[in-house]
Amino acid sequence: MKSLKNLFHVAVLVAVTGCLTATAQDVAIKGATVITMAGKKVENGVVIVRDGKIAEVGADLKIPVEATIIDAKGMVVMPGIVNVHSSAGMSQANENNDNVPFLSVIDSIDPALSFFEESRRNGVTSAAVVPGNSTMIGGRAAVVKTAGSYVNDMVLKKDIGLKISMAPRSGSRLSHYAKLRKTLEDVVEAQKKRKEKEEEEKKAKAEAEKKKAEEAKKKAADKNEDEKKEEPKKAATSSSSAKKTPAAESVTAVATRETMEALLAGKLPAYIYCSQAMDVTNAMRLVKEFKLKPIYVVGRDAYKAAGALAKAKAPVILDSNLVSWRTDPRTREDEKIVLTKIFSDAGCSFLFETNDRSTGAGSHYHWYQAATAIKYGMDREAALKALTIDAAKALGIGEFVGSIEAGKDADLVILSGDPLKASTWVEKTLVGGKVVYERAKDERLRLLFEPEKDAN
Asked: Apex CA 122: angle with CA 117 and CA 125, to 5°?
């Protein structure tokens, strides 16, 4: 009977182990050209994934027997693209109120939105979801993976920045700037008063403890037992009557205070939107005065501040409209404005933003933005880094994603060819080692390219 019971336990253990092995199965992508973004590319390479992480990458690697093999011969494997700035992942863009630092985009992210499906189709595996630009102090941004059924499962890093806009939704730029500055000053003043109050309370407590110690010493020397018993009662009564319960802060007030203090302490970066060059100047004043840690999101017309942004040595995200035309008001001559060239010539590093409302080939696609930059002189390696590892570092997630290295999340894209060619397709997208998109199973693409049936 005992041996049968042991056999039963072994059978259960084997069954459970088998289930665990099935859910954590290894994956091996072989035969592709691997663009690691951490060194030289690997021809005819192999990427081994274990438990959702990159285990090994190289040529002629031994593939585990139990691994699921993805044959990518003749294809290209690269890290998943990192979207550094988008509000399309939310049901609302948090733009209805001017000052809402207590809000978080996590409360508004909807995994069912087509944005995430499109992201996977286009090889984007991580996205910084940020409040919109029509605000003053918007909510807190977060980085999420583009695959998942529930928001909490998708979050890679919360509170990556607080949105601040230098562009007024209404009124003048001067009043908007003054209001923003006054808000930050009020936070500094409130923080100062709170520290002073804490110091006073600390001092009062120290004096009370000192007095209590002196009284205890005096009582110890006093031989009168009746007086020794009476004094503690009086002290206890006096002490309890002096206590006052401070009014409790609301949840919103606490969230606002903690967020703004984190911003002023440099623990929470500021996503600062500047639609014009003068906005950049005003933003830099605030950064210097309040010691903010900025990520500049610049509009199309902010290109005249490229030199100042280069000196700032902070992350810069370019407007999605990289090429535009401007008519000189005096000469009436048209001038071509190429943002990537202007910022490159100024020695300013930058990242790419896409237009979530765009359709067709153009600024809706990250590869198109990078290819446009290369067309106007940007180095190819730098352009690819701006889509991957540089974007990840700017968001503070470089230890997790952005390159194909052992230990990092297996967020990978398998492409039919050169990542910057218009003829190249995303064949597969992997997030955490799991295939979350396959072109061969893309029903939307099938319907789009399926020949029309003859009505007759």
From this structure: 70
Confidence of residue 94 (pLDDT cuts 50, 70, 90): low
Helix (H, G, I), strand (E, B), or coil: what is residue 216? helix
The helix/strand/coil state of 405 is coil
Buried b (16+ CB within 10 A) or exposed e, 31-49: bbbbbbbeeeebeebbbbb
- Could you write out the three-class secondary structure of 352-371? CCCCCCCCCCCCCCHHHHHH
Given phi > 0 = left and psi -120 to 50 = alpha, else beta, which region is 414? beta
- In terms of residue numbers, what domain contains 117? 82-161
- CA-CA distance, 125 to 435, in Å (whole number)? 11
pLDDT above 90 (res 358): no
Q: At 436, is the secondary structure helix, strand, or coil?
A: strand
* Residue 43 shares a structural domain with residue 70: yes
Question: Is 99 a member of any domain?
Answer: yes
Record the tokens describing residue 314, joined without a space. Answer: 């902070």
Dist CA 14 CA 31 (whole Å): 34
Domain count, the chain: 2
Tens-place pLDDT, residues 281-318: 999 999 999 999 999 999 999 999 999 999 999 999 99
Residue 230 forms part of a structural domain = no
Tokens 């352009």 -> residue: 383
Indicate the residue type of 7: L
Task: Give the CA count within 13 Å in the CB-facing half-sphere of 124.
Answer: 29
Q: Which two tokens stand for residue 428?
A: 């597969």
